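Problem: given the chain below (266 residues), write out its structure.
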Amino acid sequence: MTDPLLSELLDLALEAARRAGALLRDGRPADLGVAATKSSPIDVVTEMDIRAEKLITGYLSERRPTDGFLGEEGASVEGSSGVRWVIDPLDGTVNYLYGLPTWSVSIAAERDGERVVGVVEAPMRRETFHAVLGGGAYGNGDALTCRPTAPLDQALVATGFNYVTEVRSHQAAVAQRLIPRLRDIRRGGSAAIELCDVAAGRLDGYYERGLHPWDVAAGDLIAREAGALTGGRPGRPADGDLTVAATPGVFEPLQALLEELGAWHD
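Solution.
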């Protein structure tokens, strides 16, 4: 890597994610409970989400005090350096609450509004994913490449569901119509991990409605650097309406089918 700033940002993101992952893995209380709710009573925040975000922002701001922050649990700092950190300190909170292993720490760095570094730490899977813009994607240090192209009817596709009952009822209806057109559907519970699984060749595609920048900032870059295509509705970037990531041969037909089925609205 020839850009010293990107090298620095990657090293900081890797270390911050490692520290937060260790805190979450080793510091999980036996009586872990819900500290707050977000969009609905079942969309939860735990005390560990909050602790992990404070650890990450504290570590990064000590080393780069003029950077900005956008974090799921409330970190919002404008910054003056042109660099902004986009942080999901615990992606897959409900999995974590129940003791399921599919949760992660997601940290991305943007330079002048462009995502340039992404790190996803999945402690219970003993995996660290990272990417630098133009430098490829890696899992535990090994280069990642998405799967070879498959016909849509042979594609394994992951998705997620909103925690607002009315919204996920529509999402379930979309999935019901989509399943017969695919090999099968998976629902893991961590958008960051599922984007990394597209990068690692474990999924042919992934889609979800209602995601936020911190859910996808790191994973989107990792998927793209592994050769996947990402976007939202046809002709649009990924946004809160729809996020789609898939191998090049699956992306366009999946995106078109999701548009036809109305996956982008409630």
